[in-house]
């Protein structure tokens, strides 16, 4: 269950800069204000600076990023991340163009193998698809209005997607690529996509490559296309839990398994997309407290969530 977040942990002096997301769960605090740290939390962040990841180690982590994600999926396969059935609730764009009269029969499991895919004009790309925790729930729930492209840095993750019983190249294509480079354009032409999802992906990329990543997305989208974004927010509980020896740079950390995570300020995300040419539709922090008394879990989370539009050509 979700319980209210104490408003005292959010800076009330901040002025709204962009339209905000609506609250999707009871107790969500949706704001453009960063969390106000307690003295204990400030001490934790200061402790992290006592022993940083060495430049040599940081460079090695960058060079071996693909290897670390491959090892991650070798260990965990499809057992680590939960399916994201929430995406259509919080990003209604994923429902665009749905034919409500076809909902009852749109499950791929109910379609004969010899039925060809109906021509689909709109195209969606999930960046950082992992093992398909976003795309397969879309298919299961009958949302097949888009041809779905799915890419990941890890070839092993892509292999797992292709082995899924719902994978069907009549309406989807999974491929491995490094989205920070020109590699994606070997599969997709410029101005070919209507929607790009970037959900808990940018945080795994080195901050020096944020701009090139967003620039590639801009090139891939048609005018009027939209990026759906969610990632870890500044001072999320996961950031505060890192011990000395894990911090690579400001707000950028190494996990035990060699993968990395960055924690975003709301204004930083808006600036990143605006500098590339996007218009901010909505962007905000979501402070969410998830409580499960049976498992003795009380976890305050902070995300940055937004939608960014590539303007129509004039």
Commentary on this structure:
Residues 125-227 form the Methyltransferase type domain. One of its GO terms (molecular function) is S-adenosylmethionine-dependent methyltransferase activity. This is tRNA N(3)-methylcytidine methyltransferase. Keywords: Methyltransferase, Transferase. The structure is a single chain. The strands form 2 sheets. Strands 1, 2, 3, 4, 5, 6, 7, 11 and 12 form a 9-stranded mixed beta sheet that branches. The chain starts with a strand and ends in a 5-residue tail after the last strand. 24% of the residues lie in helices and 25% in strands. The longest helix has 12 residues, at 65-76. It is globular. The protein has a single domain, classed as Rossmann fold, CATH 3.40.50. Mean pLDDT is 83; it is low at 1-16 and 98-119. The protein is built from 9 helices and 12 strands. It has 314 residues and is an alpha/beta fold.
Could you outline the blueprint of secondary structure elements for this entry?
Blueprint: E1 2-3, E2 29-31, H1 39-48, H2 55-63, H3 65-76, H4 87-90, E3 122-127, H5 135-140, E4 146-152, H6 155-163, E5 172-176, E6 193-199, H7 210-220, E7 221-232, H8 237-240, E8 247-249, E9 252-254, E10 260-262, H9 266-276, E11 279-292, E12 297-309
Parallel strand pairs: 3-4, 3-6, 4-5, 6-7
Antiparallel strand pairs: 1-11, 2-11, 7-12, 8-9, 9-10, 11-12
GO molecular function, one term: RNA methyltransferase activity
Family: Belongs to the methyltransferase superfamily. METL family.
Domain Methyltransferase type: 125-227
């Amino acid at each position: 269950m979700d319980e209210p977040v104490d408003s005292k942990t959010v800076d009330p002096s901040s002025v709204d800069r962009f339209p905000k997301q609506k609250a999707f769960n009871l107790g969500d605090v949706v704001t453009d204000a960063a969390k106000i740290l307690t003295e204990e939390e400030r001490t934790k962040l200061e402790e992290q600076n006592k022993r940083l990841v060495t430049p040599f180690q940081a460079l090695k982590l960058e060079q071996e990023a693909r290897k670390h994600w491959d090892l991650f999926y070798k260990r965990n396969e499809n057992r680590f991340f939960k399916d994201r059935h929430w995406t259509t609730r919080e990003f209604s764009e994923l429902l665009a163009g749905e034919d409500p009269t076809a909902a009852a029969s749109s499950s791929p499991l109910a379609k004969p193998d010899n039925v060809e895919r109906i021509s689909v004009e709109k195209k969606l790309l999930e960046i950082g698809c992992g093992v398909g925790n976003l795309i397969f729930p879309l298919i299961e729930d009958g949302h097949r209005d888009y041809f779905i492209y799915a890419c990941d840095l890890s070839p092993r993750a892509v292999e797992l997607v292709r082995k899924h019983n719902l994978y069907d190249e009549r309406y989807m294509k999974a491929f491995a690529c490094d989205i920070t480079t020109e590699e994606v354009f070997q599969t997709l032409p410029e101005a070919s996509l209507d929607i790009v999802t970037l959900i808990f992906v940018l945080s795994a990329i080195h901050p020096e490559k944020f701009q090139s990543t967003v620039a590639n997305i801009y090139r891939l989208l048609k005018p009027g296309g939209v990026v759906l974004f969610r990632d870890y927010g500044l001072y999320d509980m996961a950031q505060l839990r890192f011990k000395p020896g894990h911090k690579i740079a400001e707000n950028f950390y190494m996990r035990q398994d060699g993968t990395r995570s960055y924690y975003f300020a709301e204004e930083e995300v808006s600036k990143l997309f605006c500098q590339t040419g996007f218009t901010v539709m909505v962007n905000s922090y979501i402070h969410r407290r998830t409580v499960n008394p049976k498992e003795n879990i009380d976890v305050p989370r902070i995300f940055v969530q937004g939608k960014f539009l590539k303007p129509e050509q004039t």
